[in-house]
Each structure stands twice: as C-alpha cells, then as structure tokens.
Amino acid sequence: MTTSQQLFEKAKELIPGGVNSPVRAFRAVGGSPLFIKSAKGPYIYDEDGRSYIELINSWGPMILGHAFEPVEQAVRDAIQHSFSFGAPTRKEVEMAELIISMVPSVEKVRMVNSGTEATMAAIRVARGFTGRDKIIKFEGCYHGHGDSFLIAAGSGAMTMGVPDSPGVTKATAADTLTAPYNDLAAVEVLLENNHNQVAALILEPVVGNMGCVLPEPGFLEGIRSLCDKHGVVLIFDEVMTGFRLARGGAQERFGITPDLTTMGKIIGGGMPVGAYGGRRDIMDMVSPAGPVYQAGTLSGNPIAMSAGLAMLRHLNDNPGVYSRLEEIGTKLHTGFSNSLAKLGLPFTINQIGSMFTLFMTERSVSNFADAKTCDLPLFGRYFHAMLERGVYLAPSQFESLFVSVALTDELIDQVIQANEESLTVALTN
Ligand code: PMP
C-alpha cells in the first residue's frame, strides 16, 4: 500500500468518506486519492514523494503557481501581528478598494470565508431587496452547498425544484426554479409563470461546474435584459471566473454588468476567503447599514486579507499574466485537438482562457444534458493514465482544468504528450 492509501484507510474511519470535501475522494474515477504533502510553482507532491504537474491548482486559487513568493511573504509579515482580531482593520479597507477598482460592477463589497457563504448571502440580500422569495438557477451550475442551490438538475425548466440532497426541505427547494444553461426561452417562461415572485437569477457566466461550458453569443445579454424587464437581481457567480478570465472576471470579458457578484478562490490567494458585492443600493441592504443580516467572526481575517491582497495586487499590476494564461489555454487546446485528430476521436474541447475541459462525447457541450452524454468510465481510465504520467487533473469529467502561469512551454508539451498517450491507453483498456 502507498502512504496515500494508508492515510485514506485511516481517514475513512475518522472523516466521512475520508475527505473534507466530496470530489477529493476520487469516487467519480475510482481508486484512492493522493494525499498531498506540499506544492511549489507548477508542481504538487504527494505523501509518497511523487511529483505531478498541477492542472487543478486548488480548484482555482493558485493562478500564479503554488507558494507564490509575494503571497508567502505577505502571510509571513502578517502573522507577526496575531491571527485574528474580530475588529476592523486597514487591510479590509484596502481589499475593498482594490476589488471595487478591479471588478466593473462592484460599488460596495462584503468579505466572507468561502464561496458558499458568498452565494448564500447574495441571494438573501436579493430577497431582502426585492421582497420576493424565488430564485432561478441553471441545471449543472454549482453555487456552493447552501440549501437553495442543491436542487435537482434533471427535471426540466418548467418543473418546481426537488431537493437534490436529503436535509434540504421541500419548502426551500420549491423556491428554486431551474432552467437549462444557454436556454433563454426557458428562463422567460419561468419568469412569466412566476410573475413578480423571482428575487434573483444566479449563474456562472462561464460554467466550470459541469466541465467548462461557455455562454452562447447573446445568452448573457438576453439574461441581463430579462432580469431588467422582470425586476430580478442578476447575480454573476464569479467564484471560478473572477480574476481568472480577465482582471475584472467574466463580466469584464463579456461586457455585461450584473447587479451582484460573488467571488472566492483567487481572492484569498489560497486562504479561506469569499466576497459578495455589487450595486450600492442593494449592498446597503446588508447589516448594519440595512436590515438583511449577515456576519462572520473570522470575516476579513487579517492573514487571509494579506494573502488575498498580495495576490490581487500582483494580478492588477501585471496584465501580462492574462495574456500568458490565454497563450497557455490556446496551446493546450491546439495540442489536444491535434491529438484527437491523430487518434480519430470526435471528442469536444471547450476552452476559454485558462479554463479548459476535454469532454468525452461527440456532442458539442452547451448545457448539462450535453455534458452528461460523456463516456464516464473512459474518463476514469484516462484520468488514472494521466496520473501515472505525472499530470494531476480534476478527478471528474464534470470539472474544468485551472491552469496557472507557472506552467512553462516545456511542461505544456509534457501535458500534451501525456494526454495523447493516456487517451490511447484508456481506449485500449
Ligand atoms: N460558486 C462556484 C461557481 C464554485 O465553483 C464554488 C466552488 N467550487 C462555489 C460557489 C462554492 O465555493 P466554496 O467551495 O468556497 O464554498
């Protein structure tokens, strides 16, 4: 048994499923997860001393590579002044100022401790602001584990939500309406059938959570105008796309202005941080400025703010990061496409900037139903073949890769080579 396997056996006795977040358990691909000891730059190292090229990067935050020196230094400096005060600090003001300057639609912002907290708070604020109860989300979009978001995806646009997870009440689920991604007509029907009842529409402006799925031309514009027409608060969940697809996230890249934005991952530089922000009149509903309650003992934590500030300042001051991420994404796309052509495989690649998914299906993938046509056992074999070749991918077909700027051209070539070999191995097994 490897050390990772031994640790996993013990972990299963102590932690539900052996992990503190489900996807880590490798259930979707089989086998036993790697237990990670450290990471630096483009590499991650497991407990058995093996190294892997990183294409997960903590599911997004490590956009500059692991243990990026300015972030590390900022944390080292901060810990000399104690770890938490539960009182306001200068760094929180600097953080708010920086986020507002980077993200086009954000006029005021509140820091929280995770993406889940950000989305839960954002819909509460939208409900408080509009005095309405229902929300619309898209099938296959993930917005954290708040009750309102854990709603079955498959039951079609016009159906009332059914709880996806035991523990979510029917009453909560009934307030969440779902539509297929990229389907404006379905959204319109929901809005008309629930006239003056929908508080918010939340979406990933580029989806990462059914694999990478792009908004079709006109989709985001159409959503914006439907929300305007029906008085619905439009929430862009930019936990994945924020500070990744552009300095100002997907909203900058696509030129669409949401009312509220939820953020996470990169914003904390790897520390547990989230944030939500947006229009001043809506954000002024939040306690203590307004009546909508939301709080956190560790919110705006000084160590987390220091890491996040160092990260965002680097991104803000170095636009070259974004051109390099585009270049890396394009190189991977081209390399993978060439291999697919060579092997005669009709699979689909969705890529935008540094978000990327190879879908093992012939269908073009623009919503969750398309993504679900993938050959999942084939993906499992491919995933393990990639691991054997030293490439660390997300352990599920329904995830995006998150590339970092630490990936050199030489490493990109290694990934492309490993991909071609792994596809061949997966197909013959
Ligand atoms: N929204 C999106 C778009 C996400 O991808 C995630 C997490 N992957 C979340 C919200 C929840 O964030 P967290 O895991 O930090 O609670």
Automatic annotation (TrEMBL):
Segments passing through the bilayer: none
A GO BP annotation: protoporphyrinogen IX biosynthetic process
Major localization listed first in the record, in broad terms: cytoplasm
Cofactor: pyridoxal 5'-phosphate
The keyword Glycoprotein is annotated on this UniProt entry: no
Keywords, sorted A to Z: Cytoplasm, Isomerase, Porphyrin biosynthesis, Pyridoxal phosphate
Protein name as annotated: Glutamate-1-semialdehyde 2,1-aminomutase
SUPFAM superfamilies registered for this protein in UniProt: PLP-dependent transferases
One GO CC term on file: cytoplasm
Family as reported in the entry's similarity comment: Belongs to the class-III pyridoxal-phosphate-dependent aminotransferase family. HemL subfamily.
